[in-house]
Fold this sequence. Notes:
Elements: E1 3-7, H1 15-26, E2 31-34, H2 44-47, E3 51-53, H3 62-65, H4 73-78, E4 87-92, E5 106-111, H5 122-126, H6 128-131, H7 133-153, E6 160-163, H8 166-176, E7 180-182, E8 206-209, H9 218-228, E9 232-235, H10 241-247, E10 252-256, H11 260-269, E11 272-275, H12 283-290, E12 295-298, H13 303-306, E13 313-316, H14 321-333, H15 338-345, H16 350-366
Parallel strand pairs: 1-2, 1-4, 2-3, 4-5, 5-6, 6-7, 8-9, 8-11, 9-10, 11-12, 12-13
Helix pairs in contact: 9-14, 12-15
Amino acid sequence: MRTALIHDWLTGMRGGEKVLDVLCDLHPEADIFTLLHRPGSVSATIERHPIHTSFIQRLPRAATAYRNYLPLFPLAIEHFDLTGFDLVISASHCVAKSVVPAPGTRHLCYCFSPMRYAWDQFDAYFGPARVGWWKSRLLYAPILGHLARWDASTAERVHRFVAISDHVAGRIRRYYNRDAAVVYPPVDTGFFTPAPPGQPPVGDHVLIVSALVPYKRIDLAVDACTRMGLRLRIVGDGPERTQLQARAGATVEFLGPLTNEQIRDEYRAARAVLLPGEEDFGIAPVEAQACGRPVVALARGGALETVRDGETGVHVANTSVDAFIAALERVARLSWDEAHIRESAERFSLARHREGLMRVTEETMAAPVGTRW
């Protein structure tokens, strides 16, 4: 069976690329098609496969400024020739799901999310507060409106959707009018583990592991911890870093990007790990729980599936600083069972992810050609 794996772009090992890594392991002979590829930025497992890129790869500064070419993404993804493949698996958060399969080819889409900025998070990326009123309303609004219509119209190219969470399955139903199975993303619970005996005790600080981008709402946690005088350590980087540092008090420390080993040490040492924004799933909170640490998470999106209030963490009622302060005070008052928190994280293990992907793939291939779920 010839398989093609479709991914939006390959520029680093984030959650989506970790899923692709598993798909590459399950389909060792597959070809990869992607808008662009920055060599050396992804795992050796991915790099071993034949990687086909679009014309975006050859545009000026594409390796670092590829998002500037967003209006060209539909043309680029539709340009791939998938003749001769029996199965297409797209891992999509932008346009990968809109690839055009050849007649008779089955298309399974593992959907991280319908395109956020084209649907329900336009203001977080392209609102007047981000880019100015004129650019937002006269430039980006028409472009993203067109992309949303195109995104919806191309959903029929997918024979079966698989979502990363019940939350995303709901978004697929709302925007594409399609049902979706749920297979949670992989978390390496064999690597992320509680601290071994004899390690230093848990500290008096809290932690964030996140890209520093608008929709993550890191500002809420920064403001809450600054007001409380609570130590906050932030792992990660992104375009919001300068603004966040400007508003942060003396108790907030920005660590930048760290290795996986360093991140594991940070999880183990933190009193709690914070998730201030709405996530479609949220890998970091599950990694933290695998290390036995409770999570303070906004009570929306994927956190409602991964964080059990009062058992493995605390839910935050709303996106206000006062609500976050109340949740931080609550997490400090409660006692936590490290083993129970760890056990909860095993629901999202790599082994369960692999089993889920194999199951839905087998079901998709066993169905008559053209079957849509």
